[in-house]
Design goal:
Elements: E1 3-19, E2 29-41, E3 46-50, H1 57-71, H2 79-89, H3 97-111, H4 115-118, E4 125-131, H5 138-150, E5 155-159, H6 165-179, E6 184-188, H7 206-218, E7 221-225, H8 233-242, E8 246-249, H9 256-264, E9 270-271, H10 281-293, E10 297-298, H11 306-318, E11 324-328, H12 336-339, E12 354-356, H13 369-375
Parallel strand pairs: 4-11, 5-6, 6-7, 7-8, 8-9, 9-10
Antiparallel strand pairs: 1-2, 2-3, 4-12
Length: 378
């Protein structure tokens, strides 16, 4: 089998109303933009992948100029050879792990099996936690958490991004008071990287992170995500050791060697790489097993789009140390149908809170080609 063509298109999907990301204070997003890649082979098998929603034109340019000349005519099943080509391209362009997704999609389709089964098939369903992203008051959280309960969710992630830590704690207290023991609560501080934004970010010191971790323990919060800067290894390790709550992070740590650094220095109880940002699907499995050997958990970051979600899900289902799975969902703006509009059958959480493995080969899903054509820019 040989690669005969690589096609990269920029997709922009308008949202029904403005969306506001908590981790980008003052932001107002009107659409979701990403790059969709298709890799065609001489045997009629086509693999697909998608970039993170943060990336667009630069991905199309990088694929056409930095990868296509080196992949045309090559065996798509030789993923270990191609991962170095993909990795080296990031130094001159942008992360291109959507190409790795597409290659593995071909592998699974050639074998006639979903990837998680080829990789060991540890489980075929996983508990999902709802992951809304817009800022809300404590009262608004009280109201919206019932929506997630009605949908079957047994866990939810809350975003803490207030200047005053008391305002952050009020959000968690309100939700815990409302749901009691019916839901696990996760908390994300989004402190690893402070992205450019119209309004200033609150910045957590080690002292604030320690205080918050101890207060969140009292509220029975499952984990605290990204409480400190991405490379503050000493602070992260110290916080991990000095608190009982799980400390989680890693979505911005792309290369596998950075996860080795984190493990070697005792950082985090839960590692959270992402198929759209980290070192490819199979290296994500290697990261999961490195964590397993250190008695740590693996819960991938999945805040992207439908293809990114299923790519991460294939990895999560294949490893033994992944108890939960992140499910991006904001009912008013980023509905399930909107976030997963690119695929024909969006993955829904069942009444018990589980997300089930898609049944198709490779990534397991089929593209909604009519929808994609409608919103392709070029």
């Amino acid at each position: 089998m040989k690669i005969i063509q690589i096609q990269a298109n920029l997709i922009e999907i308008p949202l029904p109303k403005e969306h506001h990301y908590t981790w980008v204070p003052g932001s107002a997003v009107k659409s979701i933009k990403f790059t969709l890649v298709k890799i065609f082979t001489d045997e009629g098998i086509t693999g697909v992948g998608a970039s993170h929603i943060c990336f667009g034109e630069e991905v199309v340019h990088s694929i056409h100029n930095l990868l296509t000349p080196f992949l045309i005519g090559k065996d798509p099943l030789a993923t270990e050879r191609h991962i170095e080509t993909i990795y080296s391209a990031r130094y001159f362009g942008t992360p291109l792990w959507l190409v790795d997704q597409a290659l593995w999609d071909i592998v699974g389709k050639a074998a006639g099996q979903p990837l998680y089964k080829l990789w060991g098939g540890f489980q075929d369903k996983i508990l999902a936690y709802g992951a809304p992203s817009e800022p809300r008051s404590p009262q608004e959280h009280r109201e919206i958490v019932h929506h997630y309960l009605e949908k079957g969710f047994k866990a939810i992630k809350l975003r803490l991004h207030n200047e005053d830590p008391k305002d952050d704690l009020a959000i968690v207290e309100a939700v815990r008071d409302e749901v009691g023991d019916r839901m696990e609560i996760m908390v994300d501080a989004n402190q690893a990287l402070l992205l450019n934004s119209p309004k200033p970010h609150p910045i957590w010191s080690y002292e604030r992170a320690l205080m918050m971790a101890r207060e969140l323990e009292k509220l029975k919060v499952y984990y605290l995500e990204e409480p400190l800067y991405i490379y503050n290894f000493k602070g992260i390790a110290r916080l991990t050791q000095e608190t009982d709550i799980y400390i989680a992070g890693g979505e911005w740590n792309g290369p596998i060697h950075e996860f080795k650094w984190l493990l070697d220095q005792g950082c985090y109880d839960i590692l959270q790489p992402d198929a759209m940002q980290s070192d490819g699907l199979f290296r994500m499995r290697q990261i999961a097993h490195m964590a397993y050997l250190e008695n740590k958990l693996f819960i991938p970051h999945t805040w992207g789009n439908g293809l990114g979600l299923v790519a991460n899900l294939q990895v999560a289902l294949s490893v033994p140390n992944c108890p939960f799975f992140e499910y991006p969902y904001d009912p008013e703006t980023l509905s399930v149908e909107m976030n997963q509009a690119m695929i024909q059958e969006p993955l829904q959480v069942d009444a018990e809170g589980y997300l089930h493995a898609p049944k198709g080969p490779g990534l397991g899903v089929e593209l909604n080609e009519d929808f994609i054509r409608r919103y392709t820019l070029r």
